[in-house]
């Protein structure tokens, strides 16, 4: 089949390359001339393991190409995917759909009469209906159909998940669109990937609902981590205990500095706004947004407390900046909130991320923040080291070497990737999330419990 992918951001580029790897001919279209020229030269604008090789192989095989104008790319396409950005709209938090509708208006006059337009972007309920109205306005009597096929790839593991998805959600309101989309995903038949056909509005809402539920699990375990710190319990053991329950599952129960990235923050906000538009309250979603925003601020307070209550005039080493490992994505990364709060309290920052330094520099324009390519270089003269993102390269640091470089041996592990015993053995004061670190804290909380029993 001939497919066109409008937009070469994360979703568009990864999806386009994977569809080409299925054997389809895919043209990825983007108005950014510099980005398209770079892609033609084999330069990948985002970091995703395996993507560079995948793009190269399919370009060489003649199944993948790139264009700046949609004319030739869409005129003979069986399916046109819209994978343009849907950021939070300034001022009200609604998903900004201007790029989706602008793309639709540009494409509809160019399409074959039996083409299918598919929203790959995350869009609110009813977006497909509006695209359908655009089709009726610009091509009255046309047989062009509109479908929804939200993406559920995880950054850092996107290619494997595209090839072996645990489900494919396709929203269609016509038999023709259903048949076409079945053919698009036919190469996955042997993998027995569930192809779930639902109404178009159901598909649009399913993506938001999935992200909201996962985000709630993260915020839930982070609040439990706070309680663990007060009671002397261990949040990792709690998470394992509840995660073994098949009704709950173990994924997204890792306490830390909160969630970020290109999906969860904006999608929860858009879902909440959509609910308001339909006179419905999503109190759990709204609470999740609040808890996550507070969580990021609280992590800065944890660093300040570890430094004796003040970071004024101190140097903080930040290790790991991206919102998760195996990506260079800095959108809504917890590290940004932590850095801002520490700078406000008079600290200076030396930061290191295995692949995210360049993107982080664009996000943090402050002379008090310096970025380096080596974690031990970042630690030189630091009064505390803070692990924010659990990159593999940060999981087995030479603690003696790290401590020797630092002015003070203080380690704040916001991802709980180290054992207290090994860090203390290396001479560090160790601070983590949701786990007891000081016996005095446990004794103090035990006293509180005794007091509670007396008054119960």
N-to-C CA distance:
70 Å
How many structural domains can be distinguished in the coordinates?
Answer: 2
* CATH class value of the largest domain: Alpha Beta
Spatial order of the strands forming the largest sheet? 3-2-1-4-5-6
Number of helices: 18
Please describe the biggest sheet, giving its number of strands, its sense, and whether it closes into a barrel: 6 strands, parallel
Helix content: 40-55%
CATH third-tier fold name of the largest domain:
Rossmann fold
In CATH, the homologous superfamily of the largest domain goes by the name NAD(P)-binding Rossmann-like Domain
CATH architecture of the largest domain: 3-Layer(aba) Sandwich
**How big a fraction of the residues is strand?**
5-15%
Low-confidence stretches: 439-444
Radius of gyration, Cα only, in angstroms? 24 Å
Secondary structure: number of strands: 14
Structural category: alpha/beta
Mean of residue pLDDT values: 93
Gross morphology: globular
Brief rundown of the structure:
The chain has 456 residues and is α/β, with parallel strands linked by helices.
Structure characterization notes:
The protein is an alpha/beta fold and about 450 residues long. It folds into two domains: about 1-200, 3-Layer(aba) Sandwich (Rossmann fold); about 210-440, Rossmann fold, CATH 3.40.50. It has 18 helices and 14 strands. It has helices at about 10-20, 35-40, 50-60, 70-75, 100-105, 125-140, 160-165, 175-185, 200-230, 235-245, 265-275, 285-305, 335-345, 355-365, 375-380, 400-405, 420-425, 440-455, and strands at about 1-5, 25-30, 65, 80, 115-120, 145-150, 170, 195-200, 315-320, 350, 370, 385, 410-415, 430. The chain has a six-stranded parallel sheet, with helices on both faces. Strands 11-10-9-12-13-14 form a six-stranded parallel sheet. The protein has a two-stranded parallel ribbon with strand order 7-8. Helix 1 (about 10-20) packs across helix 3, helix 9 packs parallel to helix 12 and helix 12 (about 285-305) packs across helix 13 (about 335-345). The longest helix is centred in the middle third of the chain and has 32 residues, at about 200-230. The protein starts with a strand and ends with a helix.
């Amino acid at each position: 089949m001939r497919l066109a992918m409008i937009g070469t951001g994360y979703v568009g580029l990864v999806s386009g390359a994977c569809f080409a790897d299925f054997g389809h001919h895919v043209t990825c279209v983007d108005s950014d001339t510099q980005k398209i020229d770079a892609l033609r030269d084999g330069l990948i604008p985002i970091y995703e393991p395996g993507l560079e090789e995948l793009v190269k192989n399919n370009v060489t095989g003649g199944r993948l190409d790139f264009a700046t104008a949609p004319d030739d790319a869409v005129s003979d396409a069986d399916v046109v995917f819209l994978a343009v950005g849907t950021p939070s709209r300034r001022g009200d938090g609604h998903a900004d759909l201007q790029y989706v509708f602008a793309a639709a208006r540009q494409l509809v006059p160019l399409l074959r009469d039996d083409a299918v337009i598919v929203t790959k972007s995350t869009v609110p309920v009813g977006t497909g209906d509006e695209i359908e109205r655009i089709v009726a306005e610009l091509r009255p009597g046309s047989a062009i159909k509109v479908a929804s096929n939200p993406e559920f790839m995880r950054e850092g593991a996107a290619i494997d998940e595209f090839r072996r998805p645990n489900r494919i959600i396709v929203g269609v309101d016509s038999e023709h669109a259903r048949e076409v989309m079945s053919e698009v995903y036919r190469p996955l038949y042997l993998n027995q990937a569930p192809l779930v056909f639902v109404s178009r509005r159901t598909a649009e809402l399913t993506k938001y609902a999935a992200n909201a539920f996962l985000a709630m699990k993260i915020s839930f375990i982070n609040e439990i981590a706070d309680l663990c710190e007060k009671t002397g319990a261990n949040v990792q053991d709690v998470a394992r205990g509840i995660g073994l329950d098949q009704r709950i599952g173990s994924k997204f129960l890792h306490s830390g500095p909160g969630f970020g990235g290109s999906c969860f923050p904006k999608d929860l906000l858009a879902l909440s706004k959509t609910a308001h538009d339909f006179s419905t309250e999503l109190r759990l979603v709204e609470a999740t947004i609040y808890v996550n925003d507070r969580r990021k601020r609280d992590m800065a307070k944890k660093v300040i407390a570890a430094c004796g209550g003040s970071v004024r005039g101190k140097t903080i080493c930040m290790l790991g900046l991206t919102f998760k490992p195996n990506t260079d994505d800095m959108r809504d990364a917890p590290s940004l909130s932590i850095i801002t709060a520490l700078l406000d309290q008079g600290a200076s920052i030396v930061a290191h991320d295995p692949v995210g330094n360049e993107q982080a520099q664009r996000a943090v324009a402050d002379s008090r923040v310096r970025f380096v390519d080596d974690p031990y270089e970042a630690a030189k003269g630091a009064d505390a080291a803070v692990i924010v993102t659990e990159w593999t390269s940060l999981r087995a640091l030479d603690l003696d070497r790290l401590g020797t470089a630092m002015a003070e041996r203080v380690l704040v592990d916001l991802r709980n990737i180290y054992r207290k015993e090994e860090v203390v053995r290396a001479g560090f004061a160790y601070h983590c999330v949701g786990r007891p670190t000081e016996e005095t804290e446990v004794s103090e909380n035990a006293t509180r419990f005794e007091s509670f029993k007396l008054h119960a």
